[in-house]
Amino acid sequence: MAVVPYKDQNDDKKSQVATMFNNIAGKYDFLNHFLSAGIDIIWRKKAVSLLAPEKPKYVLDIATGTADFAIETLRLNPDKIVGVDISEGMLAVGREKLAKKGLTNKIELKYGDSENLPFEDNTFDAITVAFGVRNFENLKKGLSEMNRVLKPGGTAVVLEFSKPRSFPMKQLYQFYFKNILPVVGKIVSKDNAAYTYLPESVQAFPDGKDFISIFEEVGFKNTKWHSLTFGISSIYTGKK
Ligand SMILES: C[S@@+](CC[C@H](N)C(=O)[O-])C[C@H]1O[C@@H](n2cnc3c(N)ncnc32)[C@H](O)[C@@H]1O
């Protein structure tokens, strides 16, 4: 059974995830930085720095949301970044942010489903996804699509929550994720389910070596796993 945000509804995971992000879009950036004490910003910087040696010119940011990862990737001076997402609410917040920063010529945001990407084979020099793959309805399909639209020799970078495994971080993290984060998330976002879905989806998600196995199964090579902040998050990289 897939972990979904709204367990009392019959919609598929993809529709529920899109609805959830539409509901919380206005509060998403604030909650992200507040609930992670700003560490999410450091994680995105680290993920982008892993891509620096590749000097990618054309980049796809999947599950781009409000475009924070795409904006961070501008540090690599690409010609163009395209961000895709299934939540129009998140994209609207992202577009407003890009307009304010004068970045609309460099970053284009459009509706796009990771499991059926609207691009030709071998299009992008690099592909990034931050906190997106856990939300895919069909993880293998989403990762295969990433591989399909990546140019041969191109690199994919995936940043995602993982599960810390050693004492005392494991216990502290579980307490925070199960007891504090859902309460604060619910009060601020006004969505009853989003911040309960977050720890549940992290718990069910294949992290570490399990993720690497699936990543390789769909065709990525030279895969690497970097554990961040006691294993709370991980970066996975792979080449086509
Ligand atoms: C936690 S947000 C991450 C946003 C952004 N990447 C960041 O680092 O803040 C997850 C995003 O994934 C998007 N998403 C989930 N499933 C998707 C899919 N199948 N295709 C494209 N986007 C998807 C959601 O709509 C949401 O905006």
TrEMBL record:
EC number of the protein: 2.1.1.163
Pfam families from the UniProt entry: Ubie_methyltran
Single GO MF descriptor: demethylmenaquinone methyltransferase activity
Catalytic activity: a 2-demethylmenaquinol + S-adenosyl-L-methionine = a menaquinol + S-adenosyl-L-homocysteine + H(+)
Swiss-Prot/TrEMBL GO biological process terms: menaquinone biosynthetic process; methylation
Annotated S-adenosyl-L-methionine binding sites: 66, 85, 113-114
Keyword vocabulary terms for this entry: Menaquinone biosynthesis, Methyltransferase, S-adenosyl-L-methionine, Transferase
Gene3D superfamilies in alphabetical order: Vaccinia Virus protein VP39
Keyword Protein biosynthesis listed: no
InterPro entries noted in UniProt: SAM-dependent_MTases_sf, UbiE/COQ5_MeTrFase, UbiE/COQ5_MeTrFase_CS
Annotated pathway: Quinol/quinone metabolism; menaquinone biosynthesis; menaquinol from 1,4-dihydroxy-2-naphthoate: step 2/2
Enzyme class name: transferase
Family: Belongs to the class I-like SAM-binding methyltransferase superfamily. MenG/UbiE family.
Free-text function comment from the UniProt entry: Methyltransferase required for the conversion of demethylmenaquinol (DMKH2) to menaquinol (MKH2).
Name under which the protein is recorded: Demethylmenaquinone methyltransferase
Biological source species: Pontibacter cellulosilyticus
Upper taxonomic lineage: Bacteria, Pseudomonadati, Bacteroidota, Cytophagia, Cytophagales
